[in-house]
Write a structure and sequence with these properties.
One of its GO terms (molecular function) is DNA binding. The chain is mainly beta. The protein has one domain (about 5-75). It has one helix at about 35-40; strands at about 5-10, 15-25, 55-60, 75. The mean pLDDT is about 75.
Length: about 80
């Protein structure tokens, strides 16, 4: 039984929503990080849309060994 929910939103530098995930309140935030970032589609000048941002600034609640660091995701955790 779910007794609450969390809304996870990835936004651009300008605050424009890029992807949204909804979870149960008692699930750890890091479980939704990869899906949230993988849903992003960034329009470029030509060609197919990019699917990965150059950098991700995330809340420390998303910090986990489950999230791969390095080539795929360049993550910075803000205070």
């Amino acid at each position: 039984m779910i007794k609450g929910m969390k809304i996870h939103v990835a936004v651009s530098k300008e605050g424009v929503p890029l992807s949204i995930e909804i979870s149960a309140a008692n699930d750890h935030d890091s479980l939704y990080f990869i899906d949230l970032i993988d849903e992003i589609s960034l329009k470029g000048e030509k060609g197919r849309p990019r699917t990965r941002p150059d950098e991700v600034n995330a809340d420390p609640a998303y910090d986990s060994d489950e999230i791969p660091q390095g080539e795929r995701y360049k993550v910075k955790y803000s205070c």
